[in-house]
Specification:
Number of strands: 26
Keywords: Cytoplasm, FAD, Flavoprotein, NAD, Oxidoreductase
Structural class: alpha/beta
Protein name: Rubredoxin-NAD+ reductase
CATH architecture of the largest domain: 3-Layer(bba) Sandwich
Helix content: 10-25%
CATH superfamily of the largest domain: FAD/NAD(P)-binding domain
Shape: globular
InterPro entries: FAD-bd_OxRdtase, FAD/NAD-bd_sf, FAD/NAD-binding_dom, Rbx-bd
Cofactor: FAD
CATH class of the largest domain: Alpha Beta
Number of domains: 3
Number of helices: 9
Largest sheet: 5 strands, parallel
GO molecular function: oxidoreductase activity
Length: about 375
């Protein structure tokens, strides 16, 4: 292979897993990871359930950049931002103007938190948690405070709500949906999740949109579209993520919702690949741990000159809400079927089936989660 390194932009789960899997196949080709932050390895999903267990930002990091570089026999450039990609010369330009050549380029840049278009001077002080530095800011802000309001009752919003409540905070959650996890759960499952989180202490304001955020001294005053007003110490936004595509678009690569790649995770340029939260594979953005692991293994083989199209099996998602354990495998967009729901005091078993009885997805809450493995065996692959 070329003496130029394989360059990976991003030091999250996607970037590091590609590097680790590649090193199992190729121990000599130089690999360079460009990281915008410290470059240490940590579990990003842990950020939404670390407060109740007293995890500090430092304790979440399991290996420093130096340790990762030693383990994987590669070079890591921490605190380095890429300002441009030039596919014609196979170079990237760093923010300080330095140019770095590559043989293959892997984009593992993740996603940015979506910011709601809220009015009011307090909007700029709304927090979101998408990386370790964000978590540090949240921990700092929580000092001496008691009331937290979360914008968004999706996966991350519910996980933070459970975690903050368990850590002793008074928590409100605001969402335009009529029940929590509106994109993942049928109505019955969402209502069950809501009751369990309410029993733990979470207060929901559903079917409601935040319009105005005012900062008065140390407090935030929120005005909802229905005229209701709330006062809180901290506002945490958890309304979703948007793939980071700016660099790819400026380089002339195909971009839709994410960076467009084929089944081999190859962009429109044969030497540039993308995976993880920033990538769109055949119309799908799959931002969870298991898809990233499958993608990284396949891409590592491709980079080691064994072309390997990605196959995604069924990959149920564990919702980290101890007050209401849940496992969800939502049906594919546009799937034809209906939810068949069984509910009792201990849980909800919701199966999404076709008219012929074929299982296309499920949502299991409470005691029903014990059936997750048996049912997962019946699910179709996400991508054959």
């Amino acid at each position: 292979m070329s003496t130029q390194p394989i360059v990976i932009i991003g030091s999250g789960l996607g970037g590091y897993t590609v590097a680790r899997e590649f090193r199992k196949l190729d121990t000599t080709t130089p690999v360079l990871i460009i990281s915008a932050d410290h470059g240490g390895f940590y579990s990003k999903p842990m950020l939404s359930n670390a407060l109740a267990t007293g995890k500090t930002p430092a304790s979440i990091v399991t290996a420093s950049a130096e340790k990762m570089a030693e383990q994987l026999k590669l070079t890591i450039r921490p605190y380095s931002r890429v300002s441009a990609i030039d596919p014609s010369s196979k170079t990237i330009t760093l923010q300080d103007g330095e140019k770095v050549s590559y043989s293959k380029l892997v984009l593992a840049m993740g996603a940015n938190p979506i910011r709601l278009p809220l009015e009011g001077e307090g909007a700029k002080d709304i927090l979101s948690v998408n990386d370790l530095e964000d978590y540090q800011r949240l921990c700092d802000a929580l000092g001496g405070k008691k009331d937290v309001t979360i914008l968004g009752a999706g996966l991350i919003g519910c996980e933070f709500a459970n975690d903050l409540t368990a850590a002793g905070y008074r928590v409100r959650v605001i969402d335009i949906s009529v029940h929590p996890l509106g994109r993942l759960l049928p109505q019955t499952g969402g209502a069950f999740m809501q009751r369990r989180l309410e029993a733990a202490g979470v207060v929901f304001h559903l079917g409601a949109a935040t319009e105005y955020v005012e900062r008065i001294h140390e407090s935030f005053h929120l005005t909802l579209a229905n005229g209701e007003t709330l006062q809180t110490d901290i506002v945490l936004s958890a309304v979703g993520l948007r793939p980071r595509t700016t660099l790819a678009q400026a380089a002339g690569l195909g971009v839709n919702r994410g960076i467009v790649v084929n089944r081999s995770l190859q962009t429109h340029n044969e030497d540039i690949y993308a995976l993880g939260d920033c990538a769109e594979v055949e119309g799908r953005i799959l931002p969870f741990v298991m898809p990233i692991m499958h993608a990284a293994r396949g891409l590592a083989s491709t980079l080691a000159e064994t072309p390997t199209p990605i196959r995604y099996p069924a990959m149920p998602v564990l919702v980290k809400t101890p007050a209401c354990p849940a496992v969800v495998s939502p049906p594919a967009a546009g799937a034809q079927g209906e939810w068949l729901v069984e509910e009792d005091e201990s849980g909800v078993k919701a199966l999404y089936k076709t008219a012929e009885g074929k299982l296309l997805g499920y949502a299991l809450l409470g005691a029903a989660t014990k059936e997750k493995n048996a049912l997962a065996a019946e699910l179709p692959a996400v991508m054959e």
